[in-house]
Amino acid sequence: MAAQLIDGKAIAEQIRQEMKAEVAELKEKFGGKAPGLAVVLVGQRKDSQTYVRNKKKACEEVGIVSFGTDLDESATEAEVLQAVAGYNADPSVHGILVQLPLPPHIDEQRVLDAISIEKDVDGFHPLNIGRLAMRGRDPLFVPCTPKGCLELLKRSGVALSGKKAAVVGRSNIVGMPAALLLQREDCTVTVIHSRTANAQRICAEADIVIAACGKAEMVGGDWIKEGAVVIDVGINAVDDATAKRGYRLVGDVNFAEASEKASQITPVPGGVGPMTIAMLLRNCVDGAARTFAAEA
Ligand SMILES: Nc1nc2c(c(=O)[nH]1)N[C@@H](CN(C=O)c1ccc(C(=O)N[C@@H](CCC(=O)O)C(=O)O)cc1)CN2
């Protein structure tokens, strides 16, 4: 039987509507103050420009004030750090995001470490990640894409406690925090990576699969247990002369095969991607609400 689709685009839209009401309430309660998000973009990558544009548009939709610094590809690390320092000191900014990837001459870790943890809406600061890994400690922010995966599971009625979960991929941005989040929900988690022996067999034992390995359609139908829930984080462009843009987007999961086995599955596009931006707004509103309450 074909799997039920988890519609990330529709769920993200619903979340934005919920937040629009919350932002209006915050403004009412705190004398017209609005959450502010600052985005630093370095270089001219088309995909990054699109993501930043979409982030600013989404901010506008929910009532978040957006600030932006666009730097040339040749910008120095000192210039990027200076932009971050300016936003760290600006009381109207509650969230700071440096769009990744950065050009290779800039030390990404040094830049991310410079963001104040109170404004780290990407949740990439080592202190926030460290707290995510610890029992009894809570991060101020959780990285947006893994947080979006969890939100999709919860809003789709998937019970997590006691379930076997497999995370395919161990990146700092998605795989590792996704595994930590599932563990916090009392899943038994296996992280599958490029050196894992019998990766397909291990994955096929999981009730929940989060695929974030960055390899087009690597997770085939034989990786999926009958009835499993599949969340596909991958966004890979594959050449397709018949497509309007000359390419089409596919995930890290072979959708046609996996949807024959899974009970629920996210599509690409329209699955996890839109949730990344919705969770960024969520983090920004939560950060602003904390600040407003502390200032009151
Ligand atoms: N500082 C950060 N940089 C990057 C992050 C991040 O979370 N923080 N994630 C990605 C890019 N990204 C957001 O920045 C992002 C990627 C994809 C989507 C999305 O909605 N994708 C659509 C398809 C879009 C298309 O047609 O090309 C979908 O999946 O439906 C949103 C945000 C790397 N950098």
* Distance between the first and last residues' Cα: 55 Å
CATH architecture of the largest domain: 3-Layer(aba) Sandwich
Bound molecules: the ligand Nc1nc2c(c(=O)[nH]1)N[C@@H](CN(C=O)c1ccc(C(=O)N[C@@H](CCC(=O)O)C(=O)O)cc1)CN2
What do we call the CATH homologous superfamily of the largest domain? NAD(P)-binding Rossmann-like Domain
Q: Roughly how much helix do the residues carry, as a percent range?
A: 40-55%
Shape: globular
Q: What structural class results from the helix and strand content?
A: alpha/beta
GO cellular component, one term: cytosol
Keywords: Hydrolase, Multifunctional enzyme, NADP, One-carbon metabolism, Oxidoreductase
Function: Catalyzes the oxidation of 5,10-methylenetetrahydrofolate to 5,10-methenyltetrahydrofolate and then the hydrolysis of 5,10-methenyltetrahydrofolate to 10-formyltetrahydrofolate.
Domain Tetrahydrofolate dehydrogenase/cyclohydrolase catalytic: 6-122
Quick rundown:
The protein is α/β, with parallel strands linked by helices. The chain is 41% helix and 16% strand.
Keywords, please?
296 residues; Rossmann fold; 2 domains; 10 helices; 11 strands; 41% helix; binds ligand LMY7XDAE
What does this structure look like?
Helix content is 41%, strand content 16%. With 296 residues, it is an alpha/beta fold. It folds into 2 domains: 31-116, Leucine Dehydrogenase, chain A, domain 1 (Rossmann fold, 3-Layer(aba) Sandwich), CATH 3.40.50; 144-273, 3-Layer(aba) Sandwich (Rossmann fold). The strands form 3 sheets. A 6-stranded parallel β-sheet has the order 1-11-8-7-5-6. Strands 3-2-4 form a 3-stranded parallel β-sheet, with helices on both faces. It has a two-stranded antiparallel sheet with strand order 9-10. It starts with a strand and ends with a helix. The model has no long low-confidence stretch (mean pLDDT 97). The structure holds ligand LMY7XDAE. Residues 51, 97-100, 122, 144-145, 235, 249, 268-270, 273-274, 276-277 line the site of the ligand Nc1nc2c(c(=O)[nH]1)N[C@@H](CN(C=O)c1ccc(C(=O)N[C@@H](CCC(=O)O)C(=O)O)cc1)CN2.
